[in-house]
Specification:
Blueprint (H helix, E strand, L loop, with lengths): L2 E7 L5 E3 L12 E3 L11 E4 L13 E4 L7 E4 L9 E2 L1 E4 L11 E6 L2 E9 L2 E8 L10 E5 L9 E5 L1
Antiparallel strand pairs: 1-4, 1-13, 2-3, 4-5, 6-8, 7-12, 9-10, 10-11, 10-13, 11-12
């Protein structure tokens, strides 16, 4: 069964957020304070091969909102595997997605329930809050994984 969760940064527990609930292709992602109650633009659906989706073992697709049928997932634009590329929402390329739409949840040593979210393009590239800023509206990008940098560590909280 897919997992519905909020995804929060270790910097300040701000959530991964779709700005202004703009669920359209090419929409960038940001961090933003938690909405109370939780709103659709701060919920994410994680699916894996356990859910019958042809994602490689150990990887997931991460869809915006609470229903993967909207087909908008976290995507590295044009499959460019280099630091400082901002991630976006984009329609899933095929069931299970392509490498630029597949993510590996890597446990952070000594921090139970916290993970790095690594790209299948290159597992050394992880979701990162640009510049380590804790400010609302800061974009989310991929960046080379550092030594447990708080802007690269995420908490998945099932909803």
């Amino acid at each position: 069964m897919p997992t519905l969760a909020t995804i929060a940064t270790k910097i300040n527990n701000y959530r991964m957020d779709v700005p202004s609930s703009n669920f359209v292709p090419h929409q960038g992602l940001q961090i933003y304070p938690a909405n109370t109650p939780t709103t659709l633009n701060q919920e994410w659906t994680l699916v894996s091969n356990i859910d019958g989706v042809p994602v490689p073992n150990g990887y997931v697709n991460i869809f915006a909102g609470n229903e993967p049928s909207n087909h908008l997932c976290i995507d590295v634009p044009n499959g460019v595997a280099q630091p400082e590329i901002e991630v976006q929402l984009y329609p899933i390329n095929r069931p299970g997605g392509t490498a630029n739409q597949q993510w590996k949840l890597i446990p952070v040593p000594g921090l139970p329930n916290w993970v790095f979210i690594a790209s299948a393009l290159d597992n050394s590239l992880v979701l990162d809050v640009r510049g380590g800023s804790g400010a609302a509206h800061t974009p989310i990008q991929i960046y080379t994984r550092g030594n447990e940098q708080p802007n690269q560590i995420w908490f998945l909280n099932p909803v």
